[in-house]
Fold:
Amino acid sequence: MGNTRLAEIIGRHERDLLAEWTRRQMDSFGTGRDRISETQLRGNSQDFLRALTEALLRNAGSDLRRQEWSSMKDLLGEISRQRATQGFTPSETAVFVFSFKQPLFTRIASEYPNDSEGFAAELWTATELLDELGLYTSEMYLKSREEVILRQQQEMLELSTPVVEVWEGVLALPLIGTLDSARTQIVMQNLLEAIVARGANLAIIDITGVPTVDTLVAQHLLKTVAAARLMGADCIISGIRPQIAQTIIHLGVDLSGVLTKATLADALQLALKKKNLTVARS
Amino acid sequence: MERIPILKMGSFLLVTIQVDMHDQLAMTLQDDLTARIVSDRASGVLIDISSLDVVDSFIGRMLGNIAAMARVLDAETVVVGMQPSVAITLVELGLSLPGIRTALNVDRGMELLRAGNNGDSNAGRENG
Amino acid sequence: MPVVKTVELPLTRQEDVVAVRQRTRSLGVEIGLTIVDQTKIVTAASELARNTVIHGGGGKATIEIVKEASKQGLRLTFEDCGPGIPDLERAMQDGYTSGAGLGLGLGGSKRLCNDFAIESKVGKGTRVTIARWKA
Structure:
């Protein structure tokens, strides 16, 4: 097939192909060009041409599943990942491959001056191949974005459940955001482990930042309080807003065995009192 | 016969459970402890379970029984050192042991017993 | 479901319950369950193994490391040829007990696992299967 022929054409025009392609890419970015340097772009493009030529010379065809394309796929994967993290849009990323079409087609045309059939065949081969490579780039871009989102979710999960020591032996756990079972489990474990690590026998769970408390959330809270008590620590739940107090009562959740306070300040005061401590103005 | 040792410290009894107990061993401990509370005129019992990585409903029930029997014999019981994973599991199992007083470690447990001994019943925790 | 490893243990004496707990723990460690998940499955195993010994008149426990898609887990089966459970629905409720226990065994074990299945025929025996998957 025309695969090796395509490699020849690219080889013959490499220098001006590279120049024109890089320029097109820079133009396409418009105002966003400061996110990537021309040197980096040229380097990426050069690597792409090398991988492309190599695969074509080995008669790889346009099926990217073939082993000949593996180094090309690694390269496109790397470029997509880079751009996903640098904040490029999907089309700005795909343009890397698609902007190669026009420079290449011009060169193909010049190689088939009087052979329209040969030109059409070569053009078709090139289009098919570049479309595949472009699609693969978009796919990789999406995949890396998903990885970024997943990582951020996990980071947020950890960030959002800090346990802080507000007084010797008194821990505070300010909860922010929606509580689901997965998160509550992490919260529960973090708190209980901190109780052991710091030798704390009082813990304040502040739910000021929890938008809604349904039966499930209330049950999770009660379980945390019960587990802490089994270990020898008392919990105070604070930050119960009026509407949350109302829902708790309407849902029939029994918080009678749990110490509750309206604000974190009140809870801290209670904690100090339980420790027989008084704060005095000096 | 296999037995869990019971130590006497002043007017308190201290038990450190370090082996994975089968049910009969747990029952023997329960018998031994109640007998010792009477013979040693103990006013408090401290049970250290920090080495236990599992507490199932049987052991949980035994701890509750010991506390209840000790109370009848005028002695306080404090269970100390429960591991976080054990506490989470017990709560999930549906066993929150409301009749048992707890403390983080042996030192805190001792403080609790001493405070109770001085007649200050508010110093303890009785959330049950 | 592919089984990676199987351990069979007899359940006739109280000491056998301890052995089931310990083997479940070591296999849980082997597949990398979190400490909380280990404790949950070991506790469930303890409850069910005791049921087999006391109410089922003895039987056996099978502990397996199983694989499904890309996840690994522990699957435990408890079998006896005892009297069986006449009213399964009631037996699953907290507080229901045929003996002197707290009646938390079956319902409690179910809460500690990801999968729970029970079959029982009066006069034939009981078989409980539980599983806990690696998160």
About this structure: The mean pLDDT of chain C is 90. Chain C touches chain B at residues 14-15, 17-18, 21-22, 25, 35-36, 38-40, 42-43, 46-47, 50, 94, 101-102, 104-105, 107-109, 111-112 (CB under 8 Å). Residues 35-54 of chain C form the longest helix (20 residues). Residues 13 and 105 of chain C are 18 Å apart (CA to CA).
